[in-house]
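Page 47, continued from p. 46.
Same chain as before, 98 aa.
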Amino acid sequence: MATDTTTETTDAVIEVTPEALAKILEIRSAEDDPETLGLRIEIVGAAGVDYQYDLSFHELAKAEADDVIVEREGLPIVIPANSVENMTGATLDLPASG
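Result:
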């Protein structure tokens, strides 16, 4: 069935490192009703081969019908349909501390 294929495809959209996941969940826990929020990641621009992203917490109930929602270790991640293709295979990580 097409749903199975879609699930397999969306599962590969983005990965999150354990360190980034812990930090995101920590930040989300300080929000009002954290369990109703997902991390929305959208590509908002490009500079050469690098993309510019907008990350924010969004109410899951307000996700658009064509948004892709994947879950990583209890964190729902909302990706607008127009960002899915370019985000496929990406990994969300914390910046290296120097």
